[in-house]
Amino acid sequence: MIITKTPFRMSFFGGGTDMPSFFNEHGGAVISTTFDKYCYVNVRHMPPFHPYISELVHNRFERVNDIEDIEHPLIRECMRLHDIHEIRLTYEGDLPARTGLGTSSTFAVGMLNAFCALKGKMMSHRQLAEEAIRVERDILKENGGWQDQVAAAYGGLNRIDFKSNDFSVHPIIISPERKKELDENLLLFYTGVQRFSSEIQADTFGKPVDKTQQLKDMLALVDEAEKVLTNKDTSLNEFGKLLDTTWKLKRGTGSKISNGSIDELYDIAIKAGALGGKLLGAGGGGFLLFYCEKEKQEHLKKALDKLMIVPFNFENDGAQVLYYAPQSYSPRKEFLLK
After folding, report:
1. Does the pLDDT at position 102 exceed 90?
2. Which pLDDT score is estimated for 330?
3. Helices 147-154 and 125-133: crossing angle, nearest 10°?
4. Which Gene Ontology terms describe the biological processes this protein takes part in (predicted)?
5. pLDDT by residue (tens digit) across 182-234?
6. pLDDT at 333
7. Pairing between β-strand 54-57 and β-strand 87-93 as defined by DSSP bridges
8. Backbone φ, ψ for residue 320 (5° rounding)
9. What is the average pLDDT value for the chain, to the nearest integer?
């Protein structure tokens, strides 16, 4: 049996510039962090006593006798990539899917990590990220960028740069006290809305309207935000103000990024004392993140009391194998059901 643990991420700056169609021409960069909410993937080989060869538990229950019958495309293609057969797989997440925290890519990283461990192989963070990108973007042809897979694999507070069909990860050097202050000044709220990131990305990048300048402006904010974080003489409140700037820019990159309800919630938060914030992920729903000084946070919570607040802390570990007990495996010679 193999159990993997993979963190969800929150992206602060540069979202959208991690798309190859943009960064291969202009370069791209994001600042993001992982935090202490995870997806867990449990994989073991099936005992040979059942009238099916694989059992998959995710947002539904699948029992199949052929990999081609698997309805979940990500599971099917990850199994095919690593020649995985006759397994029982279960997925559990601390947070709901399709909510802007890179849940699909986190699942991909965790599942690939588990499949390799099942075969007695150890994957590096880079290998995990590259394979997850390959499955989601090249094999499944899903719209989206590269930051989610990289963040989930590596973990931590990082600047991730993209160019020439490649990426590089640079931890942001910040004192533990300053990092704790940033953590404590961020509040995460769940809107209750779920959506497919790939659909939002298709809307954002699939139209003939040129959004290059907005994305260049969002890319420039990555440098500004990194300077704020790493300069101990600069107030972290400037980070919150930059979040407000990037939110306004991002709203201009696609019609589905926001809607009337989200805009209203954002305005309420600003009036209640938040210096800035953003809708995490591609847009359309999910989680709202706000930067708010500690003395004003109770007022903000009351103003948004219809939303669920999600306590969190930053984490640094990235993708892990929590439990490793591989089984000897011999494929069945025949199946009970054909």
Report:
1. no
2. 79
3. 150
4. GDP-L-fucose salvage
5. 999 999 999 886 554 444 444 444 555 678 999 999 999 999 999 999 999 99
6. 58
7. parallel
8. -135, 155
9. 90
* Torsion angle of the four alpha carbons 283, 288, 291, 293, in this order, in degrees rounded to the nearest 10: 170
Q: What is the mean pLDDT of residues 291-312?
A: 96
How large is the angle between the packed helices 103-118 and 73-81, nearest 10 degrees? 30
Task: Tell me how far apart the alpha carbons of residues 80 and 276 are, in angstroms, rounded to a whole number.
Answer: 44
In the block, tokens 């499944």 appear at: 140
* Residues with Cβ within 8 Å of residue 21, at least 6 apart in sequence: 205
179-183 average pLDDT score: 97
For residues 92 and 6, the answer to whether their CB atoms sit within 8 Å is no
CA nearest 196: which of 106, 98, 288, 96? 98
Residues 54, 118: Cα–Cα separation, whole Å: 15
Count of residues in the chain: 338
User: pLDDT at position 325, please?
Assistant: 93
Distance from C-alpha of 135 to C-alpha of 132, rounded to nearest angstrom: 5
Residue 3: count of CB within 10 angstroms of its CB: 19
The rounded Cα 202 to chain-centroid distance in angstroms is: 17
**HEC profile for the chain?**
CEEEEEEEEEEEECCCCCCHHHHHHHCEEEEEEEEEEEEEEEEEECCCCCCCCEEEECCCEEEECCHHHCCCHHHHHHHHHCCCCCEEEEEEECCCCCCCCCHHHHHHHHHHHHHHHHCCCCCCHHHHHHHHHHHHHHHCCCCCCCHHHHHHHHCCEEEEEEECCEEEEEECCCCHHHHHHHHHCEEEEECCCCCCHHHHHHHHHCCCCCCHHHHHHHHHHHHHHHHHHHCCCCCCHHHHHHHHHHHHHHHCCCCCCCCHHHHHHHHHHHHCCCCEEEECCCCCCCEEEEECCHHHHHHHHHHCCCCEECCCCEECCCCEEEEECCCCCCCCCCCCCC
- pLDDT per position as a tens digit, 257-268: 455 788 999 999
Contact 182, 294 (CB under 8 A): no
